[in-house]
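call fold(seq) -> tokens
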Amino acid sequence: MRKLAAVVVFILSAAPFLWGATLDEQDLFIAGYISGILKGRHAADVKAVVQRGHVLLPASFANHENYEEIINEIGQLNGVKSITLTDDDRVETLRRIWVYPGESLIKPLRADRHWPSFSLTYQYYTEKDRTKNALGVNVGKTFSVYRMGLEGSVPIELGVQAGVFSLFDLYDFNFDLINSDFFWGVPITAALGPVALTGRFYHNNTLDSSIGAKIGYEAVDALISFEPNEWFRLYGGAGLIVSARPSDYGRLLFQLGTEIEIRADYLSVPKTIIALNINGSEETKYILSWSFLVGLELVKNAVAAVEVYDGFDDGWAYDRRVQWIGVGLHYY
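ret:
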């Protein structure tokens, strides 16, 4: 059963590396292309809304002298499923408030081991009294569900996060499950230029297969991220556990980190990602755990990295300190 679970989780974690552009990227491309057609070729200042390949245009556009020619041109674009004319006010409203299943305003914390993402990581542990070789397999994602962005004001987004973080023993390639964390959360994010503010309620439950023990908690936290330019980011936040099992589990949490992106487009080499995440908690007497990642972005959102971790273990042995070095593939 554990081997079957390992195969299933492996397939799920590897699938994103085979995917092409995400749905929202295609919609954004179509909307941008339509804007170019309308404004560049036909001097029409008309805003379109594209949702899952369905194009909405204001009804007043039907009065344009080249209406039929433009509609035919838009209809031939790859990915366009339909073209609908609707009330001008409705199009304007949809441009400001819309359901948006796709990339979130929250950028991933790349060095945070428990940030929902898809990843495979080989981990070599330095301790003598535990497994030396392990495979970390993560399956998760942050989705934007509903976004409100009034023109000239702050965009606000409601999202959903979900993830499973599993660790498998590679001894004799048995792939025995060591530990799994199950996570879901509901974040609300506001973006103010280079600053993003996120408040979140989340649940985390841990199953340690070695002793069949479970621990879990529900918490609220707040995170502020500052990104003054395209290559540097700084973030930090704190949280409070509102319910825990066992009940005497420490309540306070904190986290901070930084990310640097080094671009060398003129050399035609992949973008380099350097990330550091630090966290602590009342339960561990505020002794810091840290994880460091340096990698290359192979394609958009996919990173091959070398990683180092020095901190507290997962599962029931959360009060035991471990160190490991590893290599992995991540899709954020």
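Residues 24-95 form a domain with the Alpha-Beta Plaits fold (CATH 3.30.70.2210).
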